[in-house]
Design brief:
The complex is a heterodimer of chains A (326) and B (293). In chain A, 77% of the residues lie in helices and 1% in strands. Chain A has 326 residues and is an all-alpha fold. In chain A, a hairpin with a 4-residue loop joins strand 1 (83-84) and strand 2. With 293 residues, chain B is mainly alpha-helical. Chain B has one domain (27-291): MetI-like fold (Orthogonal Bundle), CATH 1.10.3720.10. Chain B has 13 helices and no strands. Classes of the chains: A mainly alpha (326), B mainly alpha (293). Chains A and B meet through helix 1, helix 6, helix 7, helix 11 and helix 12 of A and helix 6, helix 7, helix 11 and helix 13 of B.
Chain lengths: 326, 293
């Protein structure tokens, strides 16, 4: 089986997953009490049965279920996720406005968590019973047990209010004047606390896994050979052992993407980060169903694409994986 | 696989499996301490409300009274409500939702995982694709959507949490079933005429339980965190006091009184930490082989 065929296979599987998400979306919309006519009637301050029926007809709600499903899917294919009556704009343009902020947060948190996690894991694996090793175990417990929104608020109190190192909320300071460079530094400054907060959940997970897989790899024969060849400790650990120990960490990081997106919802709320999470909360409070479902679809898309990229990355790192994972 | 031999029922039976597990568990001091803390929290949830206060929403004093200052051990919140009373009532919600949501997801996960691992073939293919589908949905967003569409009652919140968190249980159960179904004692039961249902529930499942129990313990912890997250966002039942709700409603005032947020957060943290330590202890006690790590 060649790589290209494999990629085609994975992509078509990803598309099927997304189709399933859309069908689920439609089912939720269909099963949930209240429909678009109720929303519009609510906005108009009430409507009689005739008007309600007219609204339903104009939106095609009187047609058979499967016809509605097909037209919903067809709309999505044409990049039409519906219209938000609360924000008075199309859901797609709303998403386009909010997605960059969420992607920035999610990706930087993942990078930080993987980088620091691997670093800690490697240090801990060098001395399995040392201080760092115990610290990693403790950190893992903390990362699992502390509610992420609370961690965020604690960091906010410590580093924005008590010691005002970082801004309290938002993604940029509108009063700042300057070129692109100044604005980028400003966004980075706002990004620090949310990123650390979101990374705190996963950092611990990665460091624990990296420690375990490093310990396993360091005990294998080829490492003994490498040492016997007279390679320096640094070369053995970084070039030989880490390369193989990274595999499970990358796999796990890929699997965690849906959890990272979930965590981002809470972190965005704490730091008023203008991303999909805060949009989701706003639209839920406003009962803006098209936007809510659009966000669910889009975040699933992010997860599917991230999984796909992880899969490809693993293939690049590890030539042993030729056929499907598992 | 080497683990196979250790699971032979005869070895366990000789020393009494439950007593052996209890003995191993008691050796783990952290886990025993955590269990004590957990029992204390359960006791507080049960006897706290009737003994201490009958309404956590009642405004009993001026707002933002610091802990211990005016006779309120943990102070009052932005509406002058007693935080300790809120914690007592919140403990009930956290534990109740944590337990029932975890139970629900274990039920779903074991059913799906056991069917996939036992029947194999197209059943396994379909069920595992179904599981993968649920792994793609961002859990918190999905349950936010469920709560938003179907109302924020305790039942809906519990279902919303249970429905999104079963995938890990399904994977673990399937892996165990795939391993155990090939063992000789299962073949022996099959040969002596046991039906599929009996093989799944009475023959294979008991031996697949240890890792499922450990996972279930961890699920209680993550369900509590999940509920806290939802109620922090204001998406839980507004008429039921919960820890996340206290944090969410007091968040705008952290500049005036950070203790209103710090204290309930500590409650969540300590509870979940205790549960995961107990889970770790159970893991060591149920899988003696893992202890060398």
């Amino acid at each position: 089986m060649n790589t290209l065929w494999m990629i085609v296979q994975r992509i078509s599987y990803a598309l099927i997953l997304l189709l399933a998400v859309l069908v689920l979306n439609f089912a939720l919309m269909y099963l949930a009490p209240g429909d678009i006519a109720d929303t519009i009637a609510g906005d108009m301050g009430g409507a009689n049965a005739e008007v309600m029926a007219e609204i339903r007809r104009s939106y095609g709600l009187d047609r058979p279920v499967w016809e509605q499903l097909v037209s919903y899917l067809w709309n999505v294919v044409q990049l039409d996720l519906g219209y938000s009556y609360f924000f008075n704009t199309s859901v797609v343009s709303l998403l386009a406005e909010r997605v960059p902020a969420t992607l920035l947060l999610v990706v930087s948190a993942q990078i930080l968590a993987i980088f620091v996690g691997v670093l800690l894991g490697v240090v801990a694996a060098r001395r399995p019973n040392g201080l760092t090793s115990h610290a990693v175990t403790l950190l893992a417990l903390f990362g699992f047990s502390a509610p992420v929104f609370w961690t965020g608020i604690m960091l906010l109190i410590a580093f924005s209010l008590l010691v005002p190192l970082f801004p309290v909320a938002g993604m940029q300071d509108v009063t700042i004047d300057g070129g692109a460079w100044v604005k980028m530094v400003d966004v980075a400054h706002h990004l620090v606390l949310p990123t650390i907060t979101l990374a705190s959940i996963f950092l611990a997970l990665y460091s624990r896994l990296c420690r375990a897989s490093m310990l396993e790899v360091l005990g294998s024969d080829y490492i003994r050979t490498a040492r016997a060849k007279g390679l320096s400790d640094r070369q053995v650990v970084v070039k030989h052992a880490l390369k193989n120990a990274l595999n499970p960490v990358v796999t796990l990081a890929g699997l965690q993407f849906s959890a990272v997106v979930s965590g981002a919802v809470l972190v965005e709320t704490v730091f008023s980060w203008p991303g999909l999470g805060t949009l989701a909360l706003q639209s839920i409070i406003a009962r803006d169903t098209p936007t809510i479902l659009g966000i669910l679809f889009f975040s699933s898309l992010v997860v599917v694409v991230a999984n796909l990229l992880t899969d490809l990355a693993l293939r690049l790192i590890d030539p042993r994986i030729r056929s499907g994972v598992n | 696989m080497a683990e196979v031999k250790l699971d032979a029922p005869a070895v366990e039976a000789a020393s009494g499996p439950l007593r052996e597990v209890a003995r191993m568990f008691l050796k783990n001091h952290a886990a025993v301490g955590a269990l004590a803390v957990l029992l204390l929290i359960v006791a507080a949830a049960v006897i706290g409300p009737p003994l201490y206060s009958d309404d956590p929403y009642e405004m009993v004093w001026a707002p933002f009274s610091p802990p211990g200052a005016d006779g309120f051990l943990l102070g009052t919140d932005y509406l002058g409500r007693d935080i300790l009373a809120g914690l007592f009532y919140g403990a009930r919600v956290s534990l109740a939702i944590g337990l029932s949501a975890a139970l629900m997801s274990v039920g779903i996960g074991v059913t799906i995982g056991a069917s996939a691992g036992f029947y194999r073939g197209w059943v396994e293919e379909v069920l595992m694709r179904f599981t993968e589908f649920f792994q793609v949905l961002p859990t918190l967003l999905f349950s936010m959507v469920i709560v938003a569409l179907f109302g924020a009652s305790l039942q809906v919140v519990t279902i919303a949490i249970g429905v999104v968190s079963w995938t890990a249980v399904a994977r673990i159960t399937r892996a165990e079933f795939l391993r155990i179904r090939e063992l000789e004692y299962v073949m022996a039961s099959r040969a002596s005429g046991a039906g599929n249902l009996k093989l799944i529930t009475a023959v294979i499942l008991p031996n697949a339980l240890p890792p499922i129990i450990v996972q279930a313990a961890l699920m209680v912890g993550s369900a509590i965190l999940f509920e806290a997250g939802l109620s922090f966002l204001g998406l839980s039942d507004p008429n039921v006091m919960s820890w996340g709700q206290i944090i969410g409603s007091n968040r705008p005032y952290i500049l005036d009184a950070s203790f209103t947020v710090t204290i309930p957060g500590m409650a969540i943290f300590v509870t979940v930490l205790a549960i995961s330590l107990v889970g770790d202890g159970l893991n060591d006690a149920l899988n003696p082989k893992l202890r060398q790590r």
